[in-house]
Amino acid sequence: MTTPAGHPVIAIVGGGIAGLAAAFFLSGSDAEVIVLEGSRRLGGKLAVSEIAGIAVDEGAEALLARRPEGTGLIGAVGLDRQLVQPGTTAAAIWTRGQLRPLPRRQFLGVPADLDELGRSEILSAAGLARARAEADLPATARTGDVSVAGYVGARFGQELVDRLVDPLLGGIYAGRSDQLSFEATMPGLANASRSHRTLAGAARSLLPVPAPLPAPANGAGAGPSAAAGPAPSTAPVFTTLAGGLGTLPAAVAARSGAAVRTGAMTRELARTPGGWRLTIGAASAPEQLAADAVILALPASPASRLLAATSPATAAALGEIGYASMAIVTLAYPRAAFPSLPERSGCLVPAVDSRAVKAVTFSTVKWPHLRAAGPPVVVVRCSVGRVGEEALLQRDDGELAAIAGAELAAATGVRGAPIDTRVSRWGGGLPQYTVCHLERVARIRAGVGRQPGLAVCGAAYDGIGIPACIASARLASAQILAYLDSRRDS
Fold this sequence. Notes:
Blueprint: E1 9-13, H1 17-25, E2 32-36, E3 48-51, E4 54-57, E5 63-64, H2 68-76, E6 83-84, E7 91-95, E8 98-101, E9 106-107, E10 110-111, H3 114-120, H4 125-132, H5 148-156, H6 158-173, H7 182-185, H8 187-192, H9 199-206, E11 238-241, H10 248-256, E12 259-261, E13 266-272, E14 275-280, E15 287-291, E16 293-296, H11 300-307, H12 312-319, E17 323-334, E18 346-348, E19 357-362, H13 363-366, H14 368-371, E20 377-384, H15 390-393, H16 397-412, E21 420-431, H17 437-449, E22 454-456, H18 466-489
Parallel strand pairs: 1-2, 1-16, 2-12, 7-18, 16-22
Antiparallel strand pairs: 3-4, 5-11, 6-11, 7-8, 9-10, 13-14, 14-15, 17-20, 17-21, 18-19, 19-20
């Protein structure tokens, strides 16, 4: 299984950011690393192309700056000088017929400041009164996992779930809070809730301390307690690359030193006495590759298919992870088309308001570098499609662009047709972390762990963001290197 020079062979199946990151983390070893990507391009859901002469991401357009995995990898491949910060992170909720400010003091829609929530007018008077009643409720007992809607709704009422929590989670997972796992999608809050009587208090404990109000000119009210507590955080929550996050995969692939093959669909995976055999390519002309170890950096369904013969129980657990499809409709307008230029980075749309668009990003507002990169246009990304809305996504590109444009006009008053459009479809792109997801992942990892020289990584397991995918890649590469070391020592 080793090369003529005596180096072990590691096959990575999947050329998205997780698979490429795994290849990069293996680059310091003596292994020959081969990345096999079934499609004709690398990058998975990271892609960039031009609209109205400006390079704009087609998939993920930002990553969490406060998690070091993403920015660390960007620095390691020499792109750190390309990191840029958003011009604004202020956002809105388009609900009950108006754009309403998204409260700052909230954690994935769970409010930490009920007065701020009231000022936003996202909820009706009755909905706000029910949310305020959370302060008087006893702690809610929780044994095992529950849905987000089940737990948060019991604390704050269903209207808050529908108009605040659901759109925030929908913007991440394209899922619904009555199906998504509280423990898996809000792990920090789930943990904090165990030590706080109120969920609002648990949310407050996870947020930066707000800046104190200025003291009166005569000094009244100033005293030892005025500056008490930790300083508020001013670090940006999100960052991106000036050329688009879609430029990251090629840089990681180049720095990894791995042999990269596109158009190389892995059709079968089988154990051999010395490792693994992969069957690649068309069924009419299959090619076989021998490897000492394999990393599956794939969505759950194709990973399940490859493991069906070798580890049926693991394959079954992978098969329990569902996926949502969605599309990004990118529209470019002349600046004069807007009655007034948007001041917010974007808006979210609750499913209860029955709109096709679930999220809007004003790209040239959120990312000032884009305004300097091209003509005087306003670029808007509209996210379309939630789990269960597959019929909507069956419409052709022109129909989706027209629907997005009409809903954008209703929300913002933009006039006229866009000067350029682009529709990027991500079929089965977002894993659904439904109730008991963590237990499901534990079963998958236990089953994979019983297969020597096998590891998994990607968005299906510990988080769908770029830093989480990179963290899972680091874990998978470490597991494979430990296995190869143990084999040398035996």
